[in-house]
Amino acid sequence: MDHAQIALDLSHALGTAARDQSFRPFVDGLRRALSSAGVRVDRLQLPMSRMLGFRHPTFGLVLSEWNDEHGHGTTVRTHAQLDATGVSGARDTPFEGIVFRGESHMIVPDLEASDASMAVLEDLRSRGYRGYLALGLPLPTGEDQPLAICSREPFPTDLPERLAPLRSLLGITVYAAIRTSQAFRVSQAYIGRESGPRVLQGEIQRGTTQRLEAGIIFCDIRGFTALSERVGPEEVVRVVNEVFAIVGEAAERRGGEILKFIGDAMLVIFPVADDRADTARAMVETARTALAGVAALDSGVQIGFGGHIGEVVQGNIGTPERLDFTVMGPAVNLASRLEGLCKPLKADAVFSDTVALEELGLVPAGPQSVKGVAAPVEAFTL
Fold first, then answer.
1. Are 146 and 237 in a shared domain?
2. What's the CATH number where 149 sits?
3. 133: domain range?
């Protein structure tokens, strides 16, 4: 067994998976490592779930697999989907002993010579697989991560013992891959699709900023206080999540990035790529689509938008111990003030003249006095 080659394969797989933000290169690295250990791998399955310490803001389960029939495949389940099943996915599978009883492995050396009746084993037998091994990999958390290996040839009965010296190395490597992916996904979920990875790549020093031109949208839920008093806090959370999901999907589909939530409001930026006109269209289409989506909820909740295009400063602000990655500048303030004009103008959205393009069909609302801005601002509504 070439331990140096195995460590090299795993190290390379970790680096490639981190760069590509995909478990596929890592699964390939596991296959190469096992091959270096003298194990034929025709199917490999790595199930990562919240039960086993996998932490993801959206997914409760990610099942990464490779087989010689179809190549790579990934199955995901949201937390809601897992909760709806009411049972653990490891029950009545070869992983049950590893997950619930702390067993190190479960091996079926030859599926054709075995009377094992588990559904997954019967399926593998029908597809021509012979050897099956579920191996528990010890994680630093004290939990065991299952790894399933199949071969078209029977496995030797002592295969678990032969792989025992590798279990800790494989476990640490899997743990590193999971934590790297977790950091990336959590940064995207809490900081932003584009901004989160930038923070992970090193833009973390307090006071570090950059200037960029962007469209800024403020979206505010109107009637939030009345809603809270009417339905209670738990229902408010549900309604707010529904509204934010509609607005967020409309914005992200058009290149917007949700930068932050501020109570019952959200801030979205649209970095200007080449043409301000494209950014203006994306902002107005986002507002129109989101307004229609929220109206369809029939919850009595309304939203208002304020939008402006201008230069902002993006970066880290805060205390030495607590930072926020955000945007600042007069353009941000103006977008917020424009949203505040929705009520007096009886409008669903108010945009500045930087957004008003003739083909967008915006309606001039005339010059408006805006707090913090000396000269009146030309406003436009839907």
1. no
2. 3.30.450.40
3. 3-190
Kindly state whether residues 92 and 118 are assigned to the same domain.
yes
Q: In whole angstroms, give the CA distance from residue 47 to residue 90.
A: 10
**Poorest-pLDDT segment among 129-133, 187-191, 254-258, 338-342:** 187-191
Average pLDDT over residues 261-267: 88
Provide, rounded to the nearest whole percent, the portion of the chain with pLDDT above 70: 95
Q: Is the pLDDT of residue 379 over 80?
A: yes
Rounded to the nearest 10 degrees, the angle between the axes of helix 24-36 and helix 3-20 is 170
Do residues 232 and 331 both lie within one domain? yes
Here the tokens at position 276 are 């301000």
Closest CA to 140 of 116, 170, 109: 170
Residue 23 C-alpha from the chain's centroid: 14
Q: Is 73 helix (H, G, I), strand (E, B) or coil?
A: strand
Q: What is the pLDDT of residues 312-329, one digit of tens each?
A: 888 777 787 777 777 888
Which position has the token pair 């002993």?
A: 97
Where is the domain boundary, 163, 190, 217?
Answer: 190
- What total number of domains does the chain contain? 2
Rounded-to-integer distance, Cα 322 and Cα 97, Å: 43
Q: Using the structure block, give the residue that is written with the tokens 């919850």.
A: 299
> Under DSSP, is residue 128 helix (H, G, I), strand (E, B) or coil?
coil
DSSP-assigned letter for residue 299: S
CATH number at residue 362: 3.30.70.1230
CB 37 within 8 A of CB 9: no
Among 190, 213, 240, where does a domain finish?
190
Residue 195 predicted with pLDDT over 90: no
